[in-house]
Amino acid sequence: MRDAPPLLSRSLLVVFLVSLGGGTSFYLLLTVVPLYAARSGGGVGAGLTTGALMLATVGAELFTPRLVARFGERLAFALGLVLLGAPVLALPTSSSLVAIVAICLVRGLGFGITVVVGSAMVASLVAPERRGEGLGLYGLVVGVPSIVALPLGVWLVGQVGYPAVFVAGASAALLSLAAIPGLPGRTRPDEPHVGVVAGLRMPALIRPAIAFSATTMAAGIVVTFIALAVPAASENLVAVALLVQAVTATLARWWAGRYGDRHGSARLLLPGIVTAALGIVTLALPASAVVVVGSMVLFGAGFGVMQNATLALMFDRVSRSGYNAASAVWNLAYDAGMGAGAAIFGVVAVRTGYTTAFLLTGAVMLTAVAPAWRDARSELVPRRPRDEDQPTYG
């Protein structure tokens, strides 16, 4: 048996760098583009841009494993960065809503490719016994843009205007292309390609994906409705609460990786779900600074734990030929859960009010305890793949 390599390698650092560039491009413009679209399309236009972006992201996640199998990780990553960054350069001259939505569709394809390939490459490049920690470190890297670039984009628009921010967003992705040659070459699999459809038929992947989607559903609700649900709170308090949630989730994701490597990721699913659900239920209490921030600490902790535990568990349950499929299924659970959660919650809240809607959300989240408990008790699948399941790069 070969000695386990160190956690950080040159190739892994390049993956982190490229993922950081793509994530910065995505989050820097995530709120800016809807604001730009609202100038001509109002609130409907703003919603259409985000909807188109996420719809295309989900679509890309479905075909990315096949794309990688055909062209390799390096070329797929490069294509994702080009699709994510290049269309942005047309935004300053694209004032019509149709053009903006079309650009968002293309960018969504690019983002979907980068997130699937990025996490799959991390799983491939880290020794199995340190995979959770490697994924946790990856979570820290990709979490930085959501913490820094998301509010920075809105602030920069007021300082330098839309065109300059668009150029910055495009540059973050396109300049990352310079690091692509430093990525490992194409994987030479010795097993048949595993596609997304096959992954969706695997109970070992679906159970943690369902558990994870319960928390992503709540994440979509939080980022969409917290400012509307707590009218007594100031805008500054809501901003602080969202920042606390993002930071807590990122740190919890890293901690869960270290813990999972030592004790197993499956045992984190139950406490992760319960903690996240408790955070959502707490939002049903009368609004105050302590309640709003405290709920975001709880939810962020549970959400971060679930991000790492479910992803590590899914990689554990496939061989290297299924890494991209596992990554795609996980990302589908992430994006579809966020979109569905926000859409359904809005309908429910109109009929019941926010207090009841948050309580119902917590109850729905707890239904994921059943598949999580089954995973925690299951001993049918070995915790780590065999050494020979690790990829060979050339």
Terminal-residue CA separation: 21 Å
On the 0 to 100 scale, the average pLDDT is 84
The number of helical runs is 14
Largest sheet: none
Q: What's the level 1 CATH class of the largest domain?
A: Mainly Alpha
Topology, element by element:
Blueprint lengths: L9 H21 L1 H40 L1 H13 L11 H29 L5 H30 L1 H13 L21 H5 L2 H27 L5 H29 L5 H14 L6 H28 L6 H30 L1 H13 L2 H9 L17
Helix pairs in contact: 1-3, 1-4, 1-5, 1-6, 2-3, 2-4, 2-12, 3-4, 3-6, 4-12, 5-6, 5-9, 5-11, 8-10, 8-11, 8-12, 8-13, 8-14, 9-11, 10-11, 10-13, 10-14, 11-12, 12-13
If you had to describe this structure to a student in words, what would you say it looks like?
Helix 10 (269-282) packs antiparallel against helix 14 (369-377). This protein is 76% helix and 0% strand. It has helices spanning 10-30, 32-71, 73-85, 97-125, 131-160, 162-174, 196-200, 203-229, 235-263, 269-282, 289-316, 323-352, 354-366, 369-377. The chain is mainly α and 394 residues long. The chain starts with 9 loop residues before the first helix and ends in a 17-residue tail after the last helix. The protein folds into 2 domains: 1-180, Growth Hormone, Chain: A (Up-down Bundle); 194-379, Growth Hormone, Chain: A (Up-down Bundle).
